Amino acid sequence: MSIPDGGCVHAQWEFRSSGITHQLPDLSYAAYGRARNAFGFTVEQFVTPNGQEQFWSQVYFRDSDADGFSNGTELGDPNGTGVALWSTGFSHPANLASRPNPPNLAPTITSSAVTNGMIGVLCQYQVTATDFQGGALTYSLRNPPSFLRISASGLVSGTPGPGQAGVYTNIVQVTDNAVPANTTEQEYTLTISMTPDDPPVISSTPVMNATIGLSYQYQISATDPEGGLLSYSLHDSPGWLSVSTNGLVSGVPPDDQSCSMIS
């Protein structure tokens, strides 16, 4: 079987499959003793008489004979790669009564895996797959790390916890519902890194003055970029000041306390 591969093809060349000749359009087609067929009229839009053009990429997805199957499907090349996926069961792309009967093909995974993640951060990868026969697909993971799961719709997800940084080899499996079933695998490497530890950010402004014998308070407002818990402490502070677990600095300056912040 020959399939146009998108290369340069002479306009008087004939496309043959399974003994059926699909005449390419050219000004001298009458010399073949037959009329141009529906497939030929499709190709005609993309070639010139006695010329050399690339046309398969413009033809494979079209349905010349309006039978519900693309030209590529009828000729064993549904994806337009120029390489036949099967060598039997193809049909005539210009004959409405001629229907393809390809063998049961394994599903095709078309998505690219997410290959990086971080400790404590949800990692997700939506697997996208198709079945040429249009059947239902089942998704599974082979030997995944303990934090990863895959849903019935093919969503790989999980949050790696402490101690799970490292490199993991994951294998996604997609299985069709044929009998016997066909399975396609996608192997990829997932690298889990430690979460970057940026310092907390203090957004509040300190109260700069206190009065002897009166209560002093300053509520610290701070956030952690990674969303972690914060603890508060004072350094080089007078003995009468303390800070609570929620960041409230408070105290009453005594009479004998002298400090630039006291009035």
Could you provide a short overview of the structure?
The protein is mostly beta strands and 263 residues long. The protein has three helices and 18 strands.
Keywords:
four-stranded mixed sheet, 263 residues, disordered N terminus, Immunoglobulin-like, elongated, three-stranded antiparallel sheet, 18 strands, mainly beta
Strand and helix map with partners:
Blueprint: E1 9-10, E2 14-17, E3 20-23, H1 38-44, E4 52-53, H2 56-59, H3 71-74, E5 108-109, E6 116-118, E7 123-126, E8 129-130, E9 137-142, E10 149-150, E11 155-158, E12 166-176, E13 183-193, E14 201-202, E15 216-219, E16 222-223, E17 242-243, E18 248-251
Parallel strand pairs: 6-13
Antiparallel strand pairs: 1-4, 2-3, 5-8, 7-11, 9-12, 10-11, 12-13, 14-16, 15-18, 17-18
Description:
The chain has 263 residues and is mainly beta. The chain has three domains: 1-103, no CATH class; 108-193, Immunoglobulins (Immunoglobulin-like, Sandwich); 197-263. The protein contains three helices and 18 strands. It has helices at 38-44, 56-59, 71-74, and strands spanning 9-10, 14-17, 20-23, 52-53, 108-109, 116-118, 123-126, 129-130, 137-142, 149-150, 155-158, 166-176, 183-193, 201-202, 216-219, 222-223, 242-243, 248-251. The strands form seven sheets. It has a four-stranded mixed β-sheet, with no helix packed on it. Strands 7-11-10 form a three-stranded antiparallel β-sheet, with no helix packed on it. A hairpin with a 4-residue loop joins strand 17 (242-243) and strand 18 (248-251).
